[in-house]
Fold this protein.
Amino acid sequence: METQYFTMKLPIIIPIDKDSVCKWKFSSGLVNQTGTVYIDNLEYQINDGNLQSPNLLKVYNSEGYSDNVNGSWVYNYYRKDHLGNIREVWRASYLRGGVTNIPAATIQETQYYPSGLPWSEGIGAAVQSRKYNGKEFVEMHGYDTYDYGARGYFPASGRFMTVDPLAEKYYSISPYAYCGGNPVNRIDPNGMDWFYYSADGKSDPTWNWRDESSYHTGVKDSNGKEVVLQGQEAVVTFDGSRDEKLGNGNNLFGEGAKLANVTVYGPDGKDDIKNYKGFSMSSDFDTFGASDDGKYTVNYRSPGKSGKLKSNWAINNTNPVDCLDGNNPSPIDPFSSTQKNGAYIHTSNKNGFAGSFYKNGNVTGAITTGCLLIVPSGHGMNGFDEFNSQLQGVSSFLLILNRSVPINNIIAPASNNSKPQWQLY
């Protein structure tokens, strides 16, 4: 067996044989491999095919990497933009040979075309290869492709090198399209989706990560039709209660506050699950009401919510949602007696204030009249800044708002069995 990579200049052929030394094969014949080998976040240098004694070159993490410079470890840090593109690499100062001090400096600067192709301008292009979206830019022999794991992205044309596994979502654009043709505002980590299902058909369903957009369960419903689950880019659950309340001073952090538990199942898989505190009621429920329990699609809108507490996360794309208990008493912005519109997920004031505003004894506004709140950042826990960062590049996600029953109990039977096994949505 062998894997072939066809570049603009030469084919690179790598035999797949666990019992032999991996080799490069060019038109001139076979030569022992010399180059770079990656194992998770570690980068090794292989010389003369000696796979038993590799040299550890770099250790990567999300904020930068450590570089082995003649036996001394040097620390380098990334500066990224809103898409996760690495714009600068800053090297910390270090000692060479324990004597000469090498000062801190910017060692790489990279500018990009909208498609992710680096400009010719910049410094230190070869210092390190992680660039657009933080992905490795493989430039050997004219390959010039970003490694996205499941597929390669060719930035010169703004297309994948292979068909997108979720191409059916973009059939009107192209099966090779990247981010629906909008790489300026979106990223696509790997094309995988979240599913809520039972792995064995017997245990309670949980969120699982799969490299496809639909999952055939093999389980039949009461009409004999197979249950097919549809995936999501990300999932956000608000598990709260109807007696959620603000603390002293109408504050999320005030004494006596009772908040919802928020879980974000992010776009990067099983290692991208984070917990937050939130508030799913209104500043004053008797005055304003609140959005009803249920499942909603949250869309990224740009521009989004204006004002001091900005947000791009529009619940039901700002279209009407039902009201809790079918009651919308808000005198400020009533849509109907049973519905609300313009709802977003946003945060409170930085100090945690989430109450109402009064003038001459009358209510003139409120932090939330149907929106959902994530606590502000900077209070020793994950907050709205972290929420935005985790969902960066997501165009829509599934919101599950539940104030009364544990989320694992909101499921529907998939067969005539007495025990429910699958959630359908």
Summary: The radius of gyration is 26 Å. Residues 235-407 form one domain. Helices lie at 285-288, 384-390.
